[in-house]
Amino acid sequence: MDHSIFNGERGRVWHVSWQLTLGRDLLRWPSLADRIVGRLISANNGEGRALLFYLVLPREIHVISRMRPGDPPSSLAAGVANVIGKWVRQADGLLGPVFVAPFRSEAIGDLESLCRDFRMLAWRPVSTGLRDGPTNYAFSALRILLGLNLPGGFRAGPLFEMLGSKVPQDRALIRRVMAEPPTALDVLQWELAKDLVPARGTLGPGGMMTRHVQGSAAALVAASKDKSIDGALRILVRWVEVKLGLQGGHGLSSNGGPEGARGRALVGGLALKLGLCSASSVARHFGRAKATLSEQMAASGARKADQAILAIPMEQIVREAIAIAMHAKETGGA
């Protein structure tokens, strides 16, 4: 494995994606999908670039690309979106935007992240209901990487060179990575993190709200009963209650004493750190004034015991919070 590709010495690996607006369908014309694949390949043929994976779905386009140091994903994305957008408008004759956003991108910083995205993309035609198996889909690099299709312009070499093994071993690695299909929870968490679906809630200024959540916040939303920001916040509240020993009818919403104020402040601090929601949304959840919660959060941030709680890695907090919620569900708790 050439780890320099992940630390910026020889460039960066990016997952770049585009999502089409409702009513557009790239697979309505197979010839259009073929042209799009060709454009993805040619856009990655520049100096210092290499296309490691591609996937074209009816309303999604994904590429994993290696780019030279200092080459931002926007330099790749703009050229792709402009050309493909023009083709789509010519094909379907519809006015208006072609893409929901100009593009979305995320740097891939290690082999684990690369394998996770490979797994989700390999199974994406299945999770979206297009196919019943990951290797039965034409508009993906997967079959070429596994030696099931001829290259057709896509070069598998850059990925295999990066993985650092011989081709048979690398293909075996890809098969191991995609051996286990993602669960519905895995799919939703990934979709939330990639901003393919928004996290929804009822804690906005006017009630309903949508928000892009990533990482641990996406995991909380996906694990919640109603798959919402509200549900994720309830899971986080329960973790704080357990951490502070507030059980037996002394929950944070009803506790008007100093322990309740402290707990609500911790929830606010953790929600902000997670990127789950704003302090205003936390205040609405508890039925408290935002100014009051902000004062309590400031006091909490200066308290050593609370600093220790806020310093716990978010991945650990979310893992424990989800475990508490799952245990309550299994035992019939609230």
Description:
The chain has 334 residues and is α+β, with helices and mostly antiparallel strands. It contains 14 helices and 6 strands. It has a 4-stranded antiparallel beta sheet with strand order 2-3-1-4, sandwiched between helices. Helix 1 runs antiparallel to helix 2, helix 7 (184-193) crosses helix 8 and helix 9 packs across helix 10 (258-274). The mean pLDDT is 90. It comes from Roseateles depolymerans. This is Transposase IS200-like domain-containing protein.
The CATH H-level superfamily of the largest domain is Transposase IS200-like
- The strand count comes to 6
Mean pLDDT: 90
> What share of the residues lie within helices?
40-55%
Q: Largest beta sheet: what is the strand line-up?
A: 2-3-1-4
Based on Cα principal axes, name the global outline: elongated
Protein name: Transposase IS200-like domain-containing protein
List keywords for this structure.
single chain; 334 residues; alpha+beta; Alpha-Beta Plaits; 2 domains; 4-stranded antiparallel β-sheet; 6 strands; Transposase IS200-like domain-containing protein
Quick synopsis:
It comes from Roseateles depolymerans. 51% of the residues lie in helices and 12% in strands. The protein is an alpha+beta fold.
Strand and helix map with partners:
Blueprint lengths: L11 E8 L10 H14 L6 E7 L3 E8 L5 H20 L11 E5 L2 H17 L14 H4 L11 H7 L3 H11 L6 H10 L5 E6 L2 E5 L3 H9 L5 H16 L13 H17 L4 H8 L3 H12 L2 H7 L3 H17 L4
Antiparallel strand pairs: 1-3, 1-4, 2-3, 5-6
